[in-house]
Write a structure and sequence with these properties.
Strand order of the largest sheet: 7-6-8-9-10-11-13-12
Low-confidence stretches: none
Oligomer: single chain
Mean pLDDT: 92
Structural class: alpha/beta
Shape: globular
Order of helices and strands: HEHEHEHHEHEHHHHHHHEEHHEEEHEEEH
Number of strands: 13
Strand content: 15-25%
């Protein structure tokens, strides 16, 4: 049985033959190559595209190193285009290797973009790229492709995708969710049933990303500092922080004053560029403005975070928050940490809403709690939601297997499994 990625496949189908470069980005092993080289290729064949008109090249394979050179890449692809009257589809996997090659030759100019633009200008070529580094979203690509591209961010499997694949294996929905919150949604890991092999796979994938996309890519010379930084982020998922706080935590832990705040900032950017973590900033709900002083870091796959900690810290609240953040990002929402200023006499108290999620006219407030069976906990979670002063839909999402209901204050109480499986929040 194959894992379906229908939402992403349909997006590719929708963009087919438009004069745009389609760029699929995401952390390694999240399924970019499978989506393009298997699912989308099968679709093209099913609608009559000839196999010889699908030109594929994986730049991550040793035998293809020669094509990291843009000139060789161009000659190879154009050599496969035999007719101006037929349409061709070009798939280039892990295209950042050609970009890096260009950077090494001249940091202010990159022939790779010139090659891709040249293919688009032929008029009968549809180009698709994948990459494991957000260099694809840099100023260079916006400038060089001049708006003629679309970026498709591919995430690890959501819980609904995971559940669709696993639901007939005899396990309850709660058992499946516990598997998901432990091992995450990377397809290769999801396909494996042996727990020990799942653990090993996740550690191996982390090492691959860590060394190939960060240490080698950016020539990191202080791996010990990067290791400490990873440990700090892994143990503080869902906690408010900023580079200064992380730097002070590092100094407190290591007493190493030879490392500057600039180094910490650079290393944090490397982790984000490789799609290991995502930085979510705060948002003033009342003032309707962004706040950059503090933010949260979430892992793109919770299984990788758990593997980094050797599966020893399965803190449910923080893991739930990370999973829901990823879920809302995959649904196309812009997300922030909510801040609700509450004035009392001469002071202001900032209450926190775990996630504020916006897409077009829709806005949702999400509070995430392992349990609200205790009245004091319930009151604490409800208070910031009631202080927003608006009528947008508000949720408290729990681990408890409680049925969905609406509180007296109009807040929807729902367990996390039901929330993740409901595609349309307006149905709740």
């Amino acid at each position: 049985m194959e894992i379906k990625r229908d939402d992403y496949l349909n997006l590719l189908i929708r963009e087919k033959d438009k004069p745009l470069v389609k760029i699929i980005t995401g952390i390694r092993r999240c399924g970019k190559s499978y989506l393009l080289f298997n699912l989308y290729r099968d679709y093209l064949l099913s609608v009559g595209v000839k196999e010889k008109n699908i030109i594929t090249l994986n730049l991550d394979e040793r035998e293809n190193i020669v094509y990291h050179e843009p000139e060789n890449l161009e000659n190879y692809i154009k050599g496969k285009i035999k007719s101006t009257n037929e349409r061709y589809y070009v798939f280039i996997d892990e295209a950042q290797y050609a970009i890096i090659k260009g950077e090494k030759k001249d940091e202010n100019y990159n022939e790779f973009y010139f090659v891709i633009n040249g293919l688009i200008h032929l008029g009968n070529v549809d180009v698709y790229l994948t990459g494991s580094n957000s260099r694809f979203l840099s100023k260079d690509i916006r400038t060089e492709f001049r708006g003629r591209y679309i970026e498709i961010g591919l995430n690890p499997l959501s819980f609904s995708e995971f559940y669709l694949f696993k639901k007939d294996n005899g396990k309850s929905i709660s058992e499946l969710f516990n598997e998901y919150l432990t091992f995450g949604g990377l397809p290769q890991v999801v396909l494996e049933d042996d727990i020990d092999l799942k653990r090993k796979m996740l550690k191996d994938i982390f090492s691959l990303v860590y060394y190939k996309d960060i240490i080698e890519r950016y020539r990191v010379d202080r791996k010990d500092v990067l290791d400490d930084l990873m440990d700090i982020l892994s143990t503080s998922v869902g906690g408010l922080t900023n580079p200064n706080k992380i730097y002070n935590t590092y100094l407190s832990k290591t007493k190493d004053k030879s490392i500057s705040l600039n180094t910490i900032n650079a290393y944090l950017s490397y982790l984000e560029d490789s799609f290991l973590v995502e930085n979510i900033t705060r948002y003033d709900v009342v003032g309707r403005k962004g706040l950059n002083s503090l933010s949260k870091y979430y892992f793109s796959d919770i299984g990788i975070r758990n593997a980094r900690l050797n599966f020893n810290r399965l803190d449910i609240n923080n893991i739930m928050e990370n999973i829901i953040a990823n879920e809302m990002i995959s649904r196309g929402y812009d997300i922030n940490v909510g801040v609700v200023p509450v004035r009392s006499h001469d002071s202001v108290t900032n209450l926190e809403i775990d996630l504020v999620c916006r897409k077009g006219p829709d806005l949702y407030y999400l509070q995430i709690s392992q349990t609200i069976l205790d009245q004091e906990t319930k009151n604490r979670e409800i208070r910031p939601l009631l202080k927003t002063g608006d009528g947008f839909t508000k949720f408290i999402i729990c681990y408890d297997e409680t049925p969905t209901y609406r509180s007296e204050e109009g807040i929807i109480i729902i367990n996390i499994r039901d929330f993740l499986l409901e595609k349309n929040l307006k149905n709740l």
